[in-house]
Amino acid sequence: MTGRPCYWHEETDGTGRYLIPGCAARAVDPDADCTCPLLEHRIADLRRELDNVRRRYHRFERWHACVMDAIQAHPDGQAVTAAAQEAFRR
After folding, report:
1. pLDDT confidence of residue 3
2. How far is CA 54 from CA 10, 41, 61, 62, 67, in A?
3. In angstroms, what CA-CA distances link 8 with 54, 67, 85?
4. What is this structure's pTM?
5. Distance of CA 85 to the CA centre of its chain
């Protein structure tokens, strides 16, 4: 079953063979079928998660730009920006 995390490790001197389980099914019963998700499914899940993080980051960038525009348009904007930069440096 290629692409699954469960595997058998064999000592090079032939003294032992050990199951390295990647799923609960094999941890309980070494002879059970591996229930680990296929590598392709794990990659697809990670790509979806990365897309979600990118979307959230772009929304944050947009929000930050709107907040900075509002601060700079305010009469005390420079003082607010200076105070924020000082607080950030601490």
Report:
1. 58
2. 42, 20, 10, 12, 20
3. 37, 55, 55
4. 0.57
5. 30
